[in-house]
Amino acid sequence: MEPDIPSPDGMGWTIEVSEGVSVLQIDWMDGKPAPEAVLQLLACKCKKKCELPSCICLSSMLKCTDLCSLKDCGNQSQEDSEDSISDGDDDDDVDDFS
């Protein structure tokens, strides 16, 4: 008994027949990477300031990300700043061992 293996055609691949030979080709994505509703949750389109009700991130109780159009807003995560501070502390410790 042979296993029932589905065709890769339509699952990110296409089968092209050239001179009687089937060739498996990558079907590069030509659409959006996610539905519009998901994309809106990932990136707001604020122009001057992120504020309610126009900022989708704030409306969804999410922090703005680097994908948002406004690069320096007050709704971005402070994790990067905290990482920089802790990295600086680690550098001081390394200098003590030298």
Q: Approximately what portion of the residues adopt beta-strand conformation?
A: 5-15%
Q: Helical proportion?
A: 25-40%
Low-confidence stretches: 80-98
Number of strands: 2
What is Rg? 24 Å
Reading side by side through the largest sheet, how are the strands ordered? 1-2
Please outline the major beta sheet: 2 strands, antiparallel
Mean pLDDT across all residues, rounded?
Answer: 75
Summarize the helix and strand pattern as letters: EEHHH
Distance linking N and C termini: 67 Å
* Total of DSSP H or I helical runs spanning 4+ residues: 3
Report the principal-axis shape.
elongated
Q: State the secondary-structure class.
A: alpha+beta
Describe the structure.
With 98 residues, the chain is an alpha+beta fold. Helices cover 31% and strands 12% of the residues. It contains three helices and two strands. It has a two-stranded antiparallel ribbon. Strand 1 and strand 2 form a beta hairpin. The protein is elongated and about 60 Å long.
Question: How would you sum up this structure in a few lines?
Answer:
This protein has 98 residues and is an alpha+beta fold.
Features of this protein?
98 residues, alpha+beta, single chain, disordered C terminus, 2 strands
